[in-house]
Amino acid sequence: PAVTAACLMTDRALFERMGGLRQIYVQGDYEDTDFCLRLRQAGLACWYLPEVELYHLEGQSYPSATRELSSAYNRWLHTRLWNAEIESAMEEHRDSSLRFAMARRGRSVAPVGVGGELGG
Asked: Mind spelling out the 3-state secondary structure of the chain?
């Protein structure tokens, strides 16, 4: 449902229309998933190319003590804003991953009620 901004590519007009990376997060942490979740709310999806490799040296541009404090605040803010949306996105992701895996094996999957078994 989300990708890291360390290797994010998007159309400039779309980026600007969505408000870009919001400045409500302290020192760059979680603003990329915030952007992706806003795209999702607008009915758009994030895609990635699994064959592309990226080495991202996370947070090495500022001291770790500072990072711990800002990250704690950003984590709180992100959870407050997006917890329900993240849960929904992850449920959809689990469902689609299961359907994809079963399709690769030549089987179909259909949920049968809440707490029911999967049939196919």
From this structure: CCCCHHHCCCCHHHHHHCCCCCCCCCCCCCHHHHHHHHHHHCCCCCCCCCCCCCCCCCCCCCCHHHHHHHHHHHHHHHHHHHHHHHHHHHHHHHHHHHHHHHHHCCCCCEECCCCCCEEC
